[in-house]
Amino acid sequence: MVRYADTMVLAWLTDSARSLSMDNLSQSLLNHEMIHFKDTVKKGENFASVAIEDACKYAGEDAYITFQLYDVLREQLLLKGGQEALDEAFNVEFPFAITLLGMEKEGIAVDTAVLELFKKEVALEIATLTEQIHSTCGTVFNLNSPKQLGVILFETLGLAHGKKTKTGYSTDEQVLDGLKDEHAVIPMLLQYREYHKLYSTYIEPLIALSQNDPASRIYTSFIQTGTATGRLSSKNPNLQNIPVKTALGMRIREAFVAPKGKKLIGIDYSQIELRLLAHFSEDSVLVNAFNEGHDIHMQTAIALFGEAEAAQKRNIAKTVNFGLLYGMGQKKLSDTLGITTKEAKEIIERYFETFPSVKGYFSGIVVHAKEMGYVETLLHRRRYFDFASATPMLKAAYERESVNTVFQGSASDLIKLSMNKIDTMIRTEGLRARMLLQIHDELIFEVDEDVAEVYASRFVEVMESILELRVPLKTSMHIGNHWGELK
DNA sequence: CCCATCACG
DNA sequence: ACGTACGTGATGGGC
After folding, report:
1. What is the DSSP string of A305-337?
2. pTM (global) more than 0.85
């Protein structure tokens, strides 16, 4: 049940929680350097003991929660200190630890037979491809070694090499894709890579884990304090990176099922980060587009290229919209779109001319980050940057991270609020529903079949009304018997 | 233990 | 002159 907590720390903390008075505990935590915010504790001493007291209420119930709460508390106080930090800890992050605990305990059902069948097919493909590749190259080597592969491709076969890595030639997907017409072995390698990834990262581990459990369910650990932006992460196994993009990858999703008599519901926020961009920047074109329910990428294309060209350039606009949130540069945009850096530069310049309030808003974030040393999300979570001691290259990276953190972190704030509200709803009303997974902007539920539609509408309603922004929050919802049907 | 690679949002 | 699109975790090779 305790999956990520350090067990020594946990045992110590739980024991203390049961046997010590509050004052003793908080002093003891400090003495043992269990709380690493000694510097801020002078002004925050009351806050600290109040917070610990609250955390300890849960200790008898479940030591794991205590640990998560403690972890969150430390994180929050380190991040900000003072009342604002504790407000967020108490109002959002502490209840969220309980929400996550419920999800971790619940797990998700896996149909092992689906995976076993797929495993046989993939194993056969891998064996065939291995044989073909070795004979095509005229030599036997380890296909999983980029080092050995690089030597074969770029020395033995004499293909023209592009970029290099620290340790030799790059053989990543982008490189291989550029060479796919140069030699018959390249398409085989690309296929091999896809099959091997599925086999080693998903098929085998998921079968092993599901066989551990009497109900064939698998249980992830959600890390609440592991990211720089406030997002969750998921590990052992990571259920936030189950394949979705290719037909083969979707076979993995088909193995995540609703048990008999139940359904899975998937609800994801549509373009939540772009909606936050519209909200924060107050740009009239963006705000209007969302308020009128228009296709945001098409509207961007119209604004950038005019009505006549918009339809054929919608994809460019889409890439630019995404790139914006990452602080894109001309180099990467040109690589992604397959255009010259000059063209990319022009598109970026035109974007900021077309959306001046976005440009102003972005520079505002960067100015704030440089002056204050941090940026804040919608719910005032902070991320700190040390611009002062940074090299020019690092400064540029910090600028991109500052901007991105506002959107990624604020989106994370929103879905945390929704999850807490839905979790409370499920518990207090005794709904025949369980929240199973969060994948950043998406929630997966398992519910009784007969109430699936009704519950789904209620969850959608919570998610879309969780906060009132300058633009509506929209979601898309799907009900199915397996995860593969939720897109 | 680091690197390269690749899966996701 | 030159280089940077953000945030994660798992795997296998190789030192």
Report:
1. H-HHHHGGGHHHHHHHHHHHHHT--HHHHHHHH
2. yes
Instruction: Evaluate if the CB of A315 falls below 7 Å from strand C.
Output: no
**Is the shortest CB-to-strand distance from A166 to strand C under 7 Å?**
no
Distance, CA of A36 to C1' of B3, in Å? 32
User: From the Cβ of A165, is strand B under 7 Å away?
Assistant: yes
Q: What would the two tokens of residue A234 be?
A: 């998921």
Q: Cis bond leading into A187, ω under 30°? A: no
**Gap from A355 CA to C9 C1', in Å?**
36
Residue nearest to nucleotide B9 (CA to C1'): A440
- A245 beta carbon < 7 A from strand B? yes
Degrees, nearest 5: CA angle A35-A37-A42: 115
Q: pLDDT averaged over chain A?
A: 86
- Point out the nucleotide closest to A147 (alpha carbon to C1′): C13
Pairing of strands A168-169, A374-376: unpaired
Residue A36 vs residues A22, A24, A51, A121: alpha-carbon distances, Å = 18, 17, 15, 52
pLDDT attached to residue A1: 29
Q: Has residue A454 got a pLDDT over 80?
A: yes
Nucleotides of B under 7 A from a protein CB: 3-9
pLDDT at res. A47: 38
Distance CA A486, CA A447 (A): 14
> Predicted confidence band at A49 (pLDDT cuts at 50, 70, 90)?
very low
Tell me the CA–C1' distance in angstroms for A171 and B4. 9
Main-chain dihedrals φ then ψ at residue A225, nearest 5 degrees: -125, 30
Helix/strand/coil for A49: helix
Task: Check whether A12 has a pLDDT greater than 80.
Answer: no
Residue A37 banded pLDDT, cuts 50, 70, 90: very low
Q: Say how far A203 CA is from C15 C1', in Å.
A: 29
CA R_g for chain A:
25
CB A296 within 8 A of CB A271: yes
> Is the minimum distance from the CB of A366 to strand C below 7 Å?
no
Strand B contacted by A440 CB (< 7 A): yes
Amino acid at A487: K
Q: How far is the CA of A156 from the C1' of B3 (A)?
A: 23
pLDDT of residue A31: 45
Q: Is A136 exposed, middle or buried (0-12, 13-18, 19+ CB in 10 A)?
A: middle
Rounded to an integer, what distance in angstroms lies between the CA atom of residue A322 and that of residue A339? 17
On the question of pLDDT at A181 being above 90, the answer is yes
Mean pLDDT for A406-427 is 97
- Whether A376 sits with its Cβ under 7 A from any strand B atom: the answer reads no
The answer, yes or no, to whether residue A388 has pLDDT greater than 90, is: yes
